[in-house]
């Protein structure tokens, strides 16, 4: 299949590189620095499957119509990238891979809804330098239709992408996206501290903040009448259970899970953006809880404070200390578990 990957960050470069290794016709569309690096030195992938030096063409814009597009830029960049390449995006499947729940509706302003295939990424990767990606851990690639995409398109996508990751087709992609929102919501804490996920959550007091994020988020979803649906290897009952037991006990369990995620240091998508001097997707992750709360006459004080802190790091380039983080959210965490 002739595949264009719009965005050569962690997920786009990893998926595109592995597809190229399986002899698919792949081109990476990315920013100037990434394009120059990849065309000069090839795409470098390291991590749990080994080290690969992959010759894959890269360009700053599409110049042909592919058979499928993987849209792998951050949500805040989706509109601009679609606009820039719109003449080559009609009548082909567009696969979205963004965190959060907003990207499909943004794409639908320009592309017929029946051509949009929504997906959720459950494998992990890190991108800090142009043309270099670390594959941290394995996982599935979940695909589904938001609005009745033809079953044939979903089957074709599954058949192709099964070459590189196990693909699962679901009939409730939206519900799964809401659960994935909880998975990603913890990434704000390493970003605020400027450390890896393993280092951040080795601290049980920091892990307790994650449990409080989940508790606040579950209350908001319930009030909004939305339902999170279990992901493969991540049942919704895990969140319900951890937010229902004593905070210290839940924090200890959560800490153990997060520290063992990857042998390599794992940096969440929010911190990866900050380290590259780019705006993060915080407004579409923790900010989604804030927006939902506002829409239903509620407040999300913990998530709002964490969003503000991430924006502070983006603006100043200065990370918070552990003490400052714990002090800043102490009241919101306590209030969430005393309500």
Please describe what this structure looks like:
- With 339 residues, this protein is α/β, with parallel strands linked by helices.
- The chain has two domains: 2-171, NAD(P)-binding Rossmann-like Domain (Rossmann fold, 3-Layer(aba) Sandwich), CATH 3.40.50; 177-338, N-(1-d-carboxylethyl)-l-norvaline Dehydrogenase, domain 2 (Orthogonal Bundle), CATH 1.10.1040.10.
- It is built from 15 helices and twelve strands.
- The protein has helices at residues 10-21, 32-41, 78-85, 103-107, 151-161, 173-185, 188-193, 197-201, 204-224, 236-242, 247-259, 269-275, 286-295, 301-316, 322-338, and strands at 2-6, 25-29, 43-47, 52-54, 58-59, 68-71, 94-96, 116-121, 124-129, 132-137, 141-145, 167-170.
- The chain has an eight-stranded mixed sheet with strand order 5-2-1-6-7-8-11-12, sandwiched between helices. A four-stranded mixed sheet has the order 4-3-10-9.
- A hairpin with a 2-residue loop joins strand 9 and strand 10 (132-137).
- Helix 9 packs parallel to helix 13 and helix 9 packs across helix 15 (322-338).
- It starts with a strand and ends with a helix.
- The model has no long low-confidence stretch (mean pLDDT 94).
